[in-house]
Amino acid sequence: MLNMFTHKNVITRFAPSPTGFLHVGGMRTALFNYLFAKQHGGKFILRIEDTDKERSKKEYEEDILAGLSWLSLSYDEIYRQSERGEIYQKHLAKMLLEGMAYEAEDNSDGTGKVIRFKNPNEKIAFEDVIRGNIEFDTTELGDFVIAKDMHTPLYHLAVVVDDFEMGVTHIIRGEDHISNTPRQILIQRALHAPLPIYAHIPLILASDKSKLSKRHGAVSVNEYRKEGYLPEALINFLALLGWNPGTEKEIFTLVELIKEFNIEKVQKGGAVFNTEKLDWINKEHLKKISPKDLEVRVAEALNVQDSIMVEKITPIILERINKINDIKKMATEGEWTYFFEAPRIDEAKLAWKDSTPEAAKKHLAEIANLLESADFSSADSIKRAVWDYAEKEGRGAVLWPFRYTLSGREKSPDPFTIASILGKEETLERLRTASAKLSQ
Ligand code: GLU
């Protein structure tokens, strides 16, 4: 087995092409490179591969930077290939001089010239950390083009020159790059560059095992931010796309991941993207946020100032959401507002299934009487005050109108919880108003 620790100074890089928004696949590559560098006290480089002038856009570069910063994946150095023309020229000139490359007619349109690599037609073998030994016969690659001209290097040349110049020791990237590796190793040899260690990580698949794409919902990292996922949750989720600790543990902070992540344990097979799992992980991370922080987010999402009420309802809200944006979404659907003002009651809905409005009226009045002298310090104490009555008269017949009166909603937390939050005065007021309505 190859020893990952032979390199004293680990240097990794994330090398996105700014030709589209940063998606989860790219971000996972960035994360694995980041974790590996940090756990070895090494350096993590961001390299913007913007040599394709037509397809590269500044807004995509900004999206990549924003995504990394949102997820707190800080890089030690940043480079743009568009600013490194002279470096590629220097290496091209040397290759031409040494006969490792040559100018040739451009077969594609027959007009200009291109620079081709002089393929020595060697067999190439390398040891991939994840995929084991990989061999290629490079004969079939022919004398491939490495630059359009001295000022326009193509992908393979720029990548190899940069990895060499930047001292990159470990190349962790998507398995779609395996087929590029033989060409890149050939160029390395021509440049007398050392062979880096490769780790090609598995593709990310949708739940139907097809390649993850836009039609599977949000794939751009920024979308997850907008949807209200926590960055620490997305990091945790991405880390588990292809890796697991071999234990039951699933919830990790970034610091824990730096300690426990192991590139050698990354699986070969595709990693399935599962939104329910992301939601679950997000909820677990939500539970770790301090109550005060959560209250600020709840107040913001609901646009309310009543801090006493916010403090009371935050734990209840937390139980019912997966992500912060659910608070607002549920509020626009009428959830939570009943904590702040009496709901509108549809009398026709007050009676439970086979019960009658008369019965509902009676139950509401009786609950009000029972609660008059009840202890409102907890949901349990309220429950105790009405429970015998509900058992005697039928739970549905009694508790449904109780809950509906307080929330005005067919689904909501139980009436005891709501009553304990509203307090005695407001609870009795709502019960009596509803009961009075039914007599009209
Ligand atoms: N720029 C390439 C890409 O975005 C990555 C190059 C590499 O990782 O070697 O796919």
Q: Uncertain segments of ≥5 residues (pLDDT<50)? A: none
Give the termini distance in whole angstroms. Answer: 84 Å
Give average pLDDT, whole number: 94
Annotation, overall tally of beta strands: 13
**β-strand amount:** 5-15%
Cα Rg: 31 Å
- Helix/strand-derived category reads alpha/beta
Helix content: 40-55%
User: What are the distinct ligands in this entry?
Assistant: glutamic acid
Q: Widest sheet: strand order?
A: 4-5-8-9
Please summarize the sheet with the most strands. Answer: 4 strands, antiparallel
CATH class bucket of the domain at 1-79 and 202-288: Alpha Beta
Report the CATH topology name of the domain at 1-79 and 202-288: Rossmann fold
- The CATH architecture of the domain at 1-79 and 202-288 can be given as 3-Layer(aba) Sandwich
Number of helical stretches of at least 4 residues? 17
The CATH superfamily of the domain at 1-79 and 202-288 turns out to be HUPs
- Strand and helix order: EHEHEHEEEEEEHEHEEHHHEHHHHHHHHH
What is the molecular shape?
Answer: elongated
